[in-house]
Amino acid sequence: MASIPENISSVRQQINQASQQYGRAPNSVTLLAVSKTQGPEKLQEAYQAGQREFGENYVQEALEKIQAMALPEIVWHFIGPIQANKTRDIAENFHWVESVDRMKIAQRLSSQRPESLGPLNVCIQVNISAEQSKSGIAIDQAQSLCEQVSQLPNLRLRGLMAIPAPSTEPAVQRKAYEPLRELFERLAPQFAHFDTLSIGMSGDYSAAISQGSTIVRVGSAIFGARAPKSSA
Ligand SMILES: *Cc1c(COP(=O)(O)O)cnc(C)c1O
Average pLDDT of the chain? Predict the structure, then answer.
């Protein structure tokens, strides 16, 4: 099995290749290393290989790593479902939250964000596969949520995030993102800092780059298959 630095380098190569193929500007796609369930030593390896942006799904697990890895330039993105009783920990410890899908959570994050840290970057999670997932706001309600969130003082609305239904077929992968891309292009001119489309995971990031992705969230292609979360 390839090492974490080798995996990062091959993912970066494929990002560059897809960017060229689809006419994207160089360095317009950020690689977010999704490190959920991985121990701090794995994140250290990625950091040594130049990785700076990390994505976490579980608050308690993430806080331990954030405390263990107070390293220069490191940027933490929260990408998991958000429970109301966890918003303070998220607001105080993360730089980005990509999974905001309702106003109640956005309001709590804004009021609990320490002003000394500056605004918390947020993306609205949009549900583009309603049959498969309960997370994310419906696409036809996203604009209204963006308008409300953009008014909150301690949040900076940066864009949209989505998780599609899994497919191994590139044409199907690209098609799934089309409505989101249209929404993103329509909304971007309406907000001051709306520059982020977080789409693409290990199995479909090239397709996502063809649809305008600016953040690809890659876990298993960097760290290997995850051990299933134990339910015991
Ligand atoms: C786990 C996860 C990823 C990464 O998935 P891989 O298929 O391992 O690359 C990306 N985004 C979210 C929201 C996730 O929960």
Answer: 96
